[in-house]
Amino acid sequence: MDILTGCAGSTAAEIGKCTAKPIIRHVGCHVGYLFRFKKIVDDLTKAKKDLQLEQQKVQEAIERAAMNTEVVEKDVEGWLANVMQLMEEVQTFENKVQENMRLCNGWCPNWIWQYKLSKEATNKKTIIEELQEKGNFSQVAHRAPIPGIGIFSSSDFEVFKSTKLASQQIMEALRDDNSKRIGLHGMGGVGKTTLVKEVYKKVKELNDFNDIVMTVVSLTPDVRKIQGEIADCLNLKLDEESDIARASRICLRIKSVEKILIIVDDVWKDFNLEVFGIPSCDDHKGCKILLTTRSTRVCNLMRCQRKIPLNILSKEESLALMKKAAGIVDDFPPFYDVMLKVVEECKGLPKAIITVGKALIEKSLNDWNVAMHQLRTSRLVDIEGVDEERNAYVCLKWSYDQLRRKTKLCFLLCSLFPEDYNIDIEELIRYAMGLNEHEDCHLLEDTRRQVRAAIDHLKDSSLLLEEFSEEYVKMHDMVRDVALWIASKGENEFKLRACTRIEKNINLESVTAISLMASQN
C-alpha cells in the first residue's frame, strides 16, 4: 500500500512538472496581451507600414510593365487583392483602438476590450508578415501576346459579290483537310490584303486554329524582318544571330502548335517558306498556309491545292463604292452620268475607286468632268510592269495631282522608304526639315505640324495606310510604285530616287533626295 501511495505521489509530481510550463506560458501570453497593449499596437503599425512599402514597390513594377504592354501575373494580382483587403481590416482595427482609448481617456482601461484588441493585433501582425514575405516576386508580369492584325482591319472593306464569294471559298478551303496551301490571286488594287485581314478576323472569332500568323513578303523579301513579324505573332523571343538559327527556332515554335494558320501576303515569285521558319505542310499536318499573289502562276509554283480568284467589281458594285467614297447621296442625272464615266476609268479596282472618290468629295459637276477627261488622257507607258493594272496607276497618279505642293513632297518622301516599311512619322519630319522645303517653318515644331497635317490628308485620301500605332504609317505597294515613278520624273520640282546601290556614271545633280535604305550592302 505504501509502495502504491509512493508511486501515485511521484506520478502526480511528474504530471505537474509536465503541465506547469505550458500553463505558465499560456498565462504569460494572456498577461502580455493585457500589459503590453501599446507595444503590440505599435508593432502592428510598423508591420503595416513595411507592407505598404512592399505594396508600393510591386505597384511601381506593375506600372513599368504596363508601359511595356506586359500582363501582370495572376499570383501578383491575388497578392495585391489580399493586401488591399488586409489594409482595410487593419484600418478598421485601428479605428476600434482609437475608440477604446477615447472612451477610457487614458484612465481605467477596459481590460476585456484591451485583451481582445491585443490578441487581434497580434494575429493581424502575423498575417502581415506572411503577406510581406510572399510579396518578394521574382517576376511581376510577362510579355502580352500580340493582339493580331484583326484590330487594324481596313475601314474601306466592303462585302461585294466578288469578295463574298472569295471569302466563302477561303473558309471552305480552310476546313478542307486536303487543302494545305491556299492561293488567293487577283490584280493589284483589287483588295487581296484587305480580304485576308477580314478572313483573319473571322477565323480568330471562330477559334478554328490555336494560332494565326500573318506576314508580308513583298517583291524583295527581307528575311530577318519577316522572321521578326512571325515571331511577334507567336509571342516568341528570338535571341539567335543567324537567319538559319532564327528560322529553326520559329519552325520549332510553329510545330508545337496543333493547328495553325499562316497568312503570307503579297507573294511575287516562287519562294522557299522554310527560309522564314515556316515548315512544309508535309512536315506539320496541322499547318495551313494562305498566300496572296497577283499571279496564278505563283499559285502553281507555290504548289497551292486551292486557287481562289478575287475578281474586279461589277459596274453596279463599282458605282456603289464610288458613291460611298465620294459621299454622294442623290442620283442627280447629269452628275450620275459623269460619275459613271469616271467609274469606268477605274476598271473595277477598289483601290482606284476609293482614291479617286475621296479626291472628289464635295467637288462640283465641272470638277468631275475635268477628272473624267484627265483620267482618260493619262499616259503611264513607261511604268515598268504596268500591264493590266494601268488604270489603277492612272487613278493614283491623278489623285496625287490633286494634292497641295507640300503634301506632294510628304507623299514622295514616303516612297523612299523600303516596300512594306513601317514609316516612323518623326523620322519623316526630320527628313522634311532637312530638305528645307518648308521655308516658312523656322522651328522643328512648325515642320512637325505641317507634316502631320499632310499625313492626315494622305490617310484621308487612302494614299497612306494607318499602322499599328498613330506614330507610324505605311504605303501600299501599288501606291509606292506610282510615287517612285512620279519622283523619278522630277515633276512639280521634286526629283527623288530610291536605290539598292549607287551605280557608276549615274547623274545625281538634279536629284532632291536619294534613299539607300533598301541597300543590301
From TrEMBL:
<keyword id="KW-0677">Repeat</keyword>
<dbReference type="InterPro" id="IPR002182">
    <property type="entry name" value="NB-ARC"/>
</dbReference>
<protein>
    <recommendedName>
        <fullName>NB-ARC domain-containing protein</fullName>
    </recommendedName>
</protein>
<keyword id="KW-0547">Nucleotide-binding</keyword>
<dbReference type="InterPro" id="IPR042197">
    <property type="entry name" value="Apaf_helical"/>
</dbReference>
<dbReference type="Pfam" id="PF00931">
    <property type="entry name" value="NB-ARC"/>
</dbReference>
<dbReference type="InterPro" id="IPR050905">
    <property type="entry name" value="Plant_NBS-LRR"/>
</dbReference>
<keyword id="KW-0433">Leucine-rich repeat</keyword>
<keyword id="KW-0611">Plant defense</keyword>
<dbReference type="InterPro" id="IPR036388">
    <property type="entry name" value="WH-like_DNA-bd_sf"/>
</dbReference>
<dbReference type="GO" id="GO:0005524">
    <property type="term" value="F:ATP binding"/>
</dbReference>
<dbReference type="GO" id="GO:0006952">
    <property type="term" value="P:defense response"/>
</dbReference>
<keyword id="KW-0175">Coiled coil</keyword>
<dbReference type="GO" id="GO:0043531">
    <property type="term" value="F:ADP binding"/>
</dbReference>
<keyword id="KW-0067">ATP-binding</keyword>
<feature type="domain" description="NB-ARC">
    <location>
        <begin position="168"/>
        <end position="326"/>
    </location>
</feature>
<feature type="coiled-coil region">
    <location>
        <begin position="41"/>
        <end position="96"/>
    </location>
</feature>
<dbReference type="InterPro" id="IPR027417">
    <property type="entry name" value="P-loop_NTPase"/>
</dbReference>
